Amino acid sequence: MINVALPKGRLGEKVLKIFEEAGYTCPSIHEQNRKLIFENEETGVRYFWVKPSDVAIYVERGAADVGVCGKDILLEYSPDVYELLDMGMGKCRMAVAAKKDFQDNTSRPLIVATKFPNIARDYYMKQGRDIDIIKLNGSIEIAPILGMSDVIVDIVETGKTLLENDLCPYEDIVDISARFIANKASHKFKYDAITALTGKIAAYVEGKK
Ligand code: PRP
Fold first, then answer.
1. Terminal CA-to-CA distance of the chain, rounded, Å?
2. How far apart are CA 24 and CA 191, in angstroms?
3. Residue 104: left if φ>0, alpha if ψ -120 to 50, beta else—which one?
4. Distance 137 CA to ligand 1 centre (A)
5. Could you read off the pLDDT of 6-29 as tens digits, one per residue?
6. What is the pLDDT of residues 106-160, one digit of tens each?
7. Rounded distance, CA 75 to CA 83, Å?
């Protein structure tokens, strides 16, 4: 049995479709209920729906053998997992954004609001810019509007949230997409099963390019 942590939400639905098209079907997951764990003995797969930002935790701890999570999470938390595949979906970018009239006052630390303090710290350290981080958990765009921060470091997908809140993207930090990851011990002990699954997903992803 391969245990797969899927990110709850739109990305997860797409990922499940790919896994099922690759042969890892699981009829019970399509039933309307609030269950979170589903398995199909015939195809040897057990799926869990988890919060997207928690996928890497389940995989790192071996509760899931494999999973799909955003590169943003891998960069922020550096979990001890194997990154096997760029799935070429869930594409977005990590960027710095601010109010349109923003001008950096380099005589004091830059105040950065973000859900991703490690990514932000790393980015500004490489630039030699002192910063103060305000760690938030969502709706980051509000921080500069209310004057709580100078800039934000956040995910930009369509750019609509920034636009509708009168913010501009200033600098791109890194491109993000969904990654197929594996627990290190599982990769060793379930090598054949995980390699077969990875191959099928890779073929599907390549075919879509
Ligand atoms: C993310 C991100 C932005 C938004 C960007 O938020 O933090 O707010 O999506 O998408 P866009 O460029 O297509 O507008 P999410 O929906 O994860 O909610 P959050 O406020 O909880 O971060």
1. 30
2. 17
3. beta
4. 11
5. 999 999 999 999 999 999 999 999
6. 999 999 999 999 999 999 999 999 999 999 999 999 999 999 999 999 999 999 9
7. 11
CA separation, residue 8 to residues 49, 51, 71 (Å): 5, 6, 16
Q: Is 95 in the pocket of ligand 1 (CB under 6 A)?
A: no
pLDDT, residue 205, reads 87
Query: Do the beta carbons of residue 150 and residue 112 sit within 8 Å?
Result: yes
Question: Quick check: CB of 136 below 6 Å from ligand 1?
Answer: no
Q: How many helices (H) and strands (E) does the chain have?
A: 8, 11
List pLDDT tens digits, range 52-84.
999 999 999 999 999 999 999 999 999 999 999
